[in-house]
Amino acid sequence: MNITVIGTGYVGLVSGTCFADSGNNVTCVDINEEKVNQLNKGNIPIYEPGLETLFDRGQREGRLHFTTEIEGAVRQADIVFLCLPTPPGGDGQADLSAVMTVAGQLGGLLEDYTVIVNKSTVPVGTADRVRQAIAGQADEELFDVVSNPEFLREGAAVDDFMYPERVVVGTSSERAADIMTTLYEPFVRSGNPIIVMDERSSELTKYAANAMLATKITFMNEIANICERVGANVDNVRRGIGTDSRIGKRFLFAGIGYGGSCFPKDVQAIHYTAGQHGYDFKILDSVMKVNEAQKVSIVKKMEDYYGTDDFSGKQFGMWGLSFKPETDDIREAPALYIAEALVERGAKLLAYDPEAIGTFRQATSRQVLDQTTFVHSQQEALDDIDALVICTEWNEFRRPTVDNFANNMKQPVIFDGRNLYDLSRAEKAGITYISVGRPSVNVPDMATTGNEV
Ligand SMILES: NC(=O)C1=CN([C@@H]2O[C@H](COP(=O)(O)OP(=O)(O)OC[C@H]3O[C@@H](n4cnc5c(N)ncnc54)[C@H](O)[C@@H]3O)[C@@H](O)[C@H]2O)C=CC1
Ligand SMILES: O=C(O)[C@H]1O[C@H](OP(=O)(O)OP(=O)(O)OC[C@H]2O[C@@H](n3ccc(=O)[nH]c3=O)[C@H](O)[C@@H]2O)[C@H](O)[C@@H](O)[C@@H]1O
Q1: Same-domain pairing of 331 and 270
Q2: Nearest ligand atom owner, CA of 105
Q3: Over the stretch 66-87, which tens digit does the pLDDT of each residue have?
Q4: Where is each UDP-glucose/GDP-mannose dehydrogenase C-terminal domain found (predicted)?
C-alpha cells in the first residue's frame, strides 16, 4: 500500500519505518525542513533501540521517503496517518491546532478514495471534526476518517509497534475497516486482536489506557509512602499483590513519579474532557496531585537526612536525566524538577545520563545549567560528591554492584528514586541508602533493613 505519514516525531517515525519494513511504500511529511534534510541523509533525530536497522533498510530498499511537500505525498496515498503533536493547552485541554491545520489542507488534495487515520492522541469527537474539515472541500465518497490510537512506549517503540498486544481501529465504515485490517494483519500474526469499534470509543480507549496506567503507578507510589511510615517494604507488597492475575505484575513499580510526553498531558486532557461534560473525574485529580509531590519527594528525604533545606556547599551526583531508560526524551522528567529543587537549595550538581545530556541541557533552566557540570561516565559523577541521587533506572546503573560504592565515593550516601539496589547488600557494604517505600539503610534514627525475601 502507499502510506503517507504526516508528522515525523516519535510516533510518525516509528510507524512509518515499521510500515515500510512490512512491505509498504511510505512517505513521511514534516514541516520541519532541517529534520527532513537530516532524515534524508539517514540521520535519525531520536534515540530508539532497534529503529536504525529498520530505518536503514527502508531507505536502502527505496520504501521510506521524507519530504516537506504535503501535496504530492497525499495525492499518491491509499492511507494518510496523522501523527501530529497534541500538547496540553493552558488549561490542560489538548491543543488540536496541528491536527486541524493539516485536516484543513487535506480536502483539496484527495483524488481517489483515501483513508485518513488519526494516530495522534485526541479528545473524543476529533474524528468528527476532522471529517467536517475535509468534507468542506472534498466529496464524502472520496474518504473515510478513522481513529487508530497508538500504544507504543518510548524505549520499546519498535517492538511495541511490530508486535502490538492489540490494534484499535475506530470507524463505522466497513471499507475503511477492511483496509486497516489488511494493513495491520502482518503485525498481529501471533493472534493478538485487531479490535474494530466506533470512533468515539476508540478515541476514549487511548485516554482510558494512559489514565489507568498512570493511576496504577500512582497507587503504588501512595502504597510506598505508607510503607515508609509503617516500616514495610513496597517491593514485598508489590510481589504480594502482583502475583494476583487480576492485578498483574506490570506498572507496579514505585518511584519518583511518572513523566514523559504522554501520561501527564493525557491525564490532564481526559480530566478536562470530563469537566467539559459536567463530570468531576475525582480519582484523576488525586493522581495529578500525588504525582506532582512524588517527583520531588526525594528532595524532602534529603532535607530530612541533612536536617536542613540549605544545601549550600554541597555537591550531588545525579545519575539519569531522561524520564525513563532507553530514551533521550526528558519531557516532564522527574530529573528536571529534582535538579531545579536541589539548585534552588544551594547545591551544585554533577550530572550523567547515557543519552539525555543534550536534551536535558536544552530543557533545563539557566540557573540549573550554571550550577551543573555534565560528565561523560557514571564514575565521573561520583567524584567528590556528598551524595548520589538516582533519577532513572538505566541498566548500566545496576552494574556497579552496590558493594563498589563504598570504595568509590567520598561519602557513600545514595538517594535512589528507582529502587535499584538490594537493601541487605547496601547495609553490608556500609552504604547509607535511602530509596522509595523501603526501609532506609545505615541511617541513624531511621528504620533499618526490612524483611527482604
Ligand atoms: N511519544 C510517544 O511515545 C507517543 C505519542 N503518542 C501521541 O502521538 C502524537 C504525536 O506524538 P509524538 O510523535 O511524540 O510528537 P512529536 O512532538 O515528537 O512530533 C510531532 C512532529 O509533527 C511535526 N509537525 C507539527 N506540525 C506539523 C504540520 N502542520 N505538518 C507536518 N508536520 C508537523 C513536528 O515538526 C514534529 O516532527 C501525540 O498526540 C502523542 O500524544 C501516542 C503514543 C505514544
Ligand atoms: O501515549 C503514550 O505516549 C505512551 O505513554 C506510555 O509510554 P511512555 O510514556 O513511553 O513510557 P512508560 O513506560 O509508560 O513510562 C511512563 C512513566 O511512568 C513511569 N513508570 C512506569 C512503570 C512503573 O511501574 N512505574 C513508573 O514509575 C516511568 O518511569 C515513566 O516516567 C504508555 O506506556 C504507552 O502505552 C503510550 O503509548
Answers
A1: yes
A2: 1
A3: 999 999 999 999 999 999 999 9
A4: 317-423
Q: Is residue 451 over pLDDT 70?
A: no
User: Structurally, how many domains does the chain consist of?
Assistant: 2
Residues 367 and 282 both lie in one domain: yes
Rounded Cα distance, 269 and 306, in Å: 39
CB atoms within 10 A of CB 370: 9
Residue range of the domain that includes 51: 2-197
Q: Is 262 tagged catalytic?
A: yes
The answer to whether residues 120 and 158 belong to one domain is yes
pLDDT one-digit tens code per residue, 407-422: 778 889 999 999 999 9
Of all atoms in ligand 2, which is nearest to the CA of residue 393? 29
**CB of 210 closer than 8 Å to CB of 263:** yes
Residues 150 and 77 in one domain: yes
Q: Is 120 in the pocket of ligand 1 (CB under 6 A)?
A: yes
Q: Which atom of ligand 2 is nearest to the CA of 121?
A: 1
Angle between helices 51-60 and 10-21 (to 10 degrees): 60
Decide whether any atom of ligand 1 lies within 6 Å of the 6 Cβ: yes
pTM: 0.95
3-state DSSP assignment of residue 314: coil
